[in-house]
Amino acid sequence: MNNHFLKFKDISTYDINEITDRAIELKSGSQSNVLSNLSAVLLFEKPSLRTKLGFWVGVQKLGGNPLYFGPEEVGLGSRESVRDVSSVISRIADIIIIRTFEHEKIHEFSKYSSVPVINALTDHEHPCQALADIQTIKENLTEIKGSKVAFIGDGNNVSRSLSYALAGSGANLVIASPNNYQIDDKTIDCANRYAINTGGSVTKISDPKKAVLNADIIYTDVWASMGQEKEQEIRKAAFERYQVNENLLDMASKNVKFMHDLPAHPNEEISENLLYDERSIVFPQSENRMWSQMALIEKIIKRK
Description:
alpha/beta; 12 helices; five-stranded parallel sheet; Rossmann fold
């Protein structure tokens, strides 16, 4: 892997196992001070709970000093140019974690940064979430290779990163979305090529009931992501039959587990109490954001 982590395929399929196995070790009590006497800047243009908390506490657990900048403080690309901000921060901090809208912005930022840059979310990808998802699936399945995961919902940044992560881990991902909201063919082709040596695959269909047959994991996300609020009602109508509920889980493997990257909207993409169903592993999945991000940072810093 290179020193930046901007999109999931910046790491190799071998790196997926190494990072997520290390995350499980850290969660089990293994210690690391890889960030001792180092500072990590969290530069966020989008509000956050899990991403900010997981990185903040994770950096501290690694012995580092987290520094947070919200959207009103920097004005990335407006108050100051992306190049200027990158040039300033990378001369002072040791690693930079960015949560923004346009994926092009984080690419431009990394171009001028002299220290590693991590994508904490863009409109195109959510690679740190996908690492946490692999860790969570490993903790709950006997074997991730050859397993089936059904993603029900929008072909968005979460499903895009998940395509690389799951196929790269040897799993078979089926993404069920309504017409006009399906994941792009380029991502499917690239993810399948990325996983050429793992036996994993990504396919897309429109029928959620067919997607969940024999699935070991059922995963969903919100129908309208941050920045898509004006599309809320249109999307709600388009995704009406794509709600993940107890009945849909019953159609899958008898030991199926349910995942959601949160925040969730009960009575929209999920039924009212699904987060607390005995098959839900949503909250361990949320916790794993911290552990997988710690393992990622450790690997990046050790490669500097």
